[in-house]
Predict the 3D structure of the following.
Amino acid sequence: MVSRLALLLALPLTAACAPMAPSGDARAPISGQPVEGALFVAGKFGNTLTKVELASGETAARVASCANPHELATSPDESHLALACYGGRTVDIFRTSDLGKVASVDLGEGARPHGIVWHANGDIYATAEGRRSIFWIRDPLGAAEAFEYGSGQDGTHMLAVAPDGRHAWTTNLGSRTVSLIDLKTRRAPRSVEVGEEPEGIALADDGETLWVSARGSNAAFTLDPETLAIRQRIETGAFPLRIVVRPQGDYAVTSDLADGGLSVIDTATGELDRSIAVSSPAEAEARTQVTILFSPDGERIYVAETTANTIVEVDFASGRVLRRLPGAGGGDGIAIIE
């Protein structure tokens, strides 16, 4: 059976070429303090990597990348960027200053890396969906040793990593499971079923709650990170593809692809606080909203509209769409430095 996501991603690019409203102007002024830094966009249809200056909203650089690039992660010092090459077998590393490629780490035949984390400890962790595993890449800018850990599950897609680097959690689309992987002892991973098509995953900063969005269930779930016991189910908008936790820890947000909205969940109560309309339900299929990312200060959310080739900047407090930034090549994975 063809999934709803596959159908949406198959829509022609011309469907998204309607004229933008004033809020769609990439150079529109932003209320509050000036926005500094840069947004990085992986163009999975165009095989590109783009840097967008946030102050101007203009494209600063664009380079060719690997085939079908997906998730992005920035180094702790923000000097480098790691790209998961979903159409191949490598994790490629670029400078954030000029998008110069500095390294490529080969994860082996059929790896298809997708989810990626550049940890505060300096190491990179990535899923390898084609190998049903994850990789721990130690010293990625130096000797770059890669160690593989099998999940034993199908469709190992996204991941979260513990603050101490001892454990990782993955969502496994094909098996409808979430797995806990011990990175130190290599004990057999523990896996539990969580809704239909669990994909998005995020660990609270205190490490006490694991958040999962199950796109086929139109729901988010909270889990005990140690036991994987499901604590709560929260109904969201339609097809919640990703989930992120605000840097302040007070809200979790899902990206609801099928209705063009964001579901905002109070982390203290586990209840739906509000919904933010990024695009109308009628526009949702033409825009194909995928990845979401908070600004480091938690004041803005960036939303990748893959088919529309735009990245939406949303004021979190008001829910207002501030502007639409360039997301050329089918922007999917995004990362930010400020």
